[in-house]
Amino acid sequence: MKADLVIENARIYTLNPAAPRAASLAVAGGRILAVGETVARHIGPGTRRVDARGAAIVPGFIDSHAHMEGLGDLLETFDLRHVKTVAEVAAIVRQATAARPAGEWIRGRNWDQTNWGGQFPKAADLEAAAPGHPVYLTRVDGHAAWVNRKALELAGITRETADPPGGKIHRDAAGVPTGILIDTAQGLVGRKIPAATDEQVRERLARAARECARLGLTTVHDAGVDRRDLAGYRALIAANRLPVRIYAMIGGAGELWREYLERGPEIGERLTVRSLKLMADGAMGSRGAAFWQPYSDDPGNTGLLMLTRERIEEAARQAAAKGFQVNTHAIGDRANRVVLEAYGAVLGGANGKRFRIEHAQAVALPDFELFARYSVIPSMQSTHATSDMRWAEQRLGPDRLLGAYAPKRFLKLGLRVANGSDFPVEDPNPLWGFYAAVTRQDHQGRPEGGWFPEQRMSRQEALESWTIHGAWAAFEEDVKGSLEPGKFADFVLLSEDIMTVEPARILKARVTMTVLGGETVYSER
């Protein structure tokens, strides 16, 4: 067979243990045809030949936990990730109101109170900035909202409003809501924001997909989709506008989940739906993650458990019977144990169901072994460690920190760690995630030697976590995750060899070309 495309003169990291390095590869019909010395025989008059000029090539990156519509929405609003004061946030909100008619909602994302000392902001901080607009600003972890008085009024939230199950309304000493809503309490206001149209959803997904292609992501595990997301993906696929493969998790055990239980998994080359996303607790940054003992910096608060063990076990039984996977968000040690016990009641022992815990962020030391006992995949995000290390010990204390953000503990048990970013909570750039995994440092190289350096991954482990382990976590290791004959021709060319350069240069690396199914979906040339 003659190749459609041949890449030559490259440094290819195949992640095929039988032939880990190569200089060339051939593609035909969207799949890898040959790798290495046999490529030459497949070159014909119609073959497109690309001289990589010594560039490094790796399998397309797989983000195992992300939120596509959230990224698309962020790209059309404003990002508060690096804003250092409440006053700066207010100034950005004021600027956003200038071109908006009175009464229109002002939305933004990624504020972080740890940027300005740790105190949660208040509704009053936004009053002068947007007196005629309701404001809804999502915290960086997605588990808290900061709203102004107008938004509270529109939602009818007063001192008499009860906390919803799995949520918390922050209140002052007099019981008056302050403007901070935790976890499910966000919905009290969020439901009042006009829903995006089908077209807006579709365009957000398209915008996010283009950004993924630019960054070298060829597969994204979308952690919590609804009916409109799936319709948007299908429309983009039909129009040839989806330059990334999607492994979709159904968001919650509702009507859409029940429909899929009847019909069974949906498996395709660009869109697969075969998993359920559950939420066991909140996030550590907003003190909603569920722990056995109180937060070290918030005595009396053990966080919020959003699902009971019984509810998780019920969904797990349904999924196991119908060929679906369950992927449950669990951050605190209590939430992780509850999920593991619920899974264990269904799975019994070692198995091939590939149930996952999303984040597995703070695990009690005796509970790591339960992941191995029940074959549970830890789906982790390396940049969470380097973002949270500024304040994690304040929340957890030194003892609990030993089991937090600890991928090497899982690897030593023989488990596959599937890496991701949780974008838009973190930046979607997988090269930054790779850097965080191998250095445990921020972009300024702090702390020296890395934060808990014994948890650093080797470069090989990190690359596997961003490729073949992500494929494994989606039952897709036979078609993606490494560069071997028969697999999808999903790969990226890099400006730097991330497997050999000095660590600081990883941050300067760029994806110069992204290839999906043999088609160039991004090129900086």
Textual characterization of the structure:
The protein has a domain at 73-190: Diaminopimelate Epimerase, Chain A, domain 1, CATH 3.10.310.70. The strands form 4 sheets. An 8-stranded parallel sheet has the order 8-14-15-16-17-18-19-20. Strands 3-2-7-21-22-23 form a 6-stranded mixed sheet, with helices on one face. The protein is α/β, with parallel strands linked by helices. The protein is built from 17 helices and 23 strands.
Q: Would you spell out the secondary-structure blueprint of this structure?
A:
Elements: E1 5-8, E2 11-13, E3 21-22, E4 25-28, E5 31-35, E6 48-51, E7 56-59, E8 61-66, H1 68-76, H2 86-97, E9 106-111, E10 135-139, E11 144-147, H3 149-154, E12 167-171, E13 177-183, H4 186-190, H5 198-215, E14 217-225, H6 227-238, E15 245-251, H7 255-263, E16 271-279, H8 309-322, E17 325-330, H9 333-347, E18 356-359, H10 368-373, E19 377-380, H11 382-388, H12 392-401, H13 407-412, E20 418-419, H14 430-439, H15 459-465, H16 468-472, E21 491-494, H17 503-506, E22 511-516, E23 519-523
Parallel strand pairs: 1-6, 2-7, 8-14, 9-10, 14-15, 15-16, 16-17, 17-18, 18-19, 19-20
Antiparallel strand pairs: 1-4, 2-3, 4-5, 7-21, 10-11, 11-13, 12-13, 21-22, 22-23
Helix pairs in contact: 1-5, 5-6, 8-9, 11-14
